[in-house]
Amino acid sequence: MKIFHTSDWHLGRTLYGKKRYIEFEAFLNWLIEQIELKSPELLIIAGDIFDNTTPSNKAQELYYQFLCKVAANTSCQHIVIIGGNHDSPTLLNAPKELLKQLKIHVVGNISPDYRDDVLELKDTNGITQALVCAIPYLRDRDIRILDEYELAEDKDKNFMHAIKDYYSKVCEHAELLRQQLEHPVPIIATGHLFVTGGKTLKDDGVRELYVGSLAQFGATDFPAGIDYLALGHLHVPQIIASKDNYRYSGSPLAMGFGEARQQKVIIEADISVGNVTVNEIAIPKFQPLERIAGNLDTIKLALTNLVNRNESIWVEVDYTGQEIVANLQQELQAIVMNTQVELIKVYNSQLLAQVLSSAEYEGGIELSSLNPEQVFDKCLSMNNIPANQQEELKKCFAQIMQDLTSNDVRAE
Ligand SMILES: [Mn+2]
Q1: In this structure, are 385 and 246 located in the same domain?
Q2: Ligand 1 centre from 277 Cα, in Å?
Q3: How far is the CA of 233 from the centre of ligand 1 (A)?
Q4: What spacing in Å lies between the alpha carbon of 191 and ligand 1's midpoint?
Q5: Spacing, Cα 239 to ligand 1 middle (Å)
Q6: Among candidate residues 254, 282, 310, the one where a domain is terminated
Q7: Do 229 and 324 belong together in one domain?
Q8: Does the residue 289 lie in any domain?
Q9: Residue range of the domain that includes 195
Q10: What's the CA-to-centroid distance between 264 and ligand 1, angstroms?
Q11: Is residue 98 a contact partner of residue 9, using CB atoms and an 8 Å limit?
């Protein structure tokens, strides 16, 4: 069976407030072309379809238009979609039954009976082609009965055990189904989680899954018998533990300037029982991003070179020079004015460092230059919170931040 594996679309994500719908649309159109060209029978989208739990109508429109085009106009017979940590499980699941009619299988969160999360995919003649273990991002409350007396140090460990158990029992059920079939078919598993040893890049937009967690999920914790493992969550495409058939496809778009130069891909895999051939298909860069760092002269020169390329480029500048340049933004803006180069973000590290180290804000710094953690740190020091309490408070803050972004606010 030939499949396409992609993940982490983050539809609706912005770059410092700049909307990126043109890029998302270009990617989806490109993906449809690839599906027409290579004719996969199955497309897997391994979570983080949307960037947040309340995606805009525009983001949803892109998603449904894409699904409709693939179902109606291509030979791709099945689409499997799982929820990621950024997704609202109930939002993904709302049209589940309707999409099922188009052979689009959505698993936003786990089913009441885990056996239902093993999908038996059939061809047009009704012959089973593959079994797919579709395991969305697992939240603690989904897979465990929470015990309020549980010790904090046991929590991580018990939760991680529950995740491993869940993967085991779903895959065991798939194995059982496989043995009952007349012809052996491949087992494909898809999940959204962090596997120990996975690569991330600074600024790639991957949100920590479990705050302060020491418990880990390793490559050897996946049950045996999986012919291909399609993972989502990490945004850098990669192979897990040197196993060519265990992969993260990574995100289709660079999520931040830090990964602007990284080649994004989708995975094409030909899967039969015990045998997989894998190929990465490079995704074009729909919007060139560039990151420039250095002193004023370096930045001005680099910026001029970008202007001379005469194409649309979005730029992030990080001024790291020694002297304080108060009107940096204006000086750089003068270079790119009336050109195709757009300054998306200018970091003035010197000015920032000065402001962060002084006791009071004296203006000149934008709040958007700071992340919430930096603001919280600043708050701790301004209020003279003793060092021995800071650690615990920072942990609580991180937990609150995570709850704010991962709660399924419209679930009822
Ligand atoms: Mn993601």
Answers
A1: no
A2: 25
A3: 4
A4: 12
A5: 17
A6: 282
A7: no
A8: no
A9: 2-282
A10: 14
A11: no
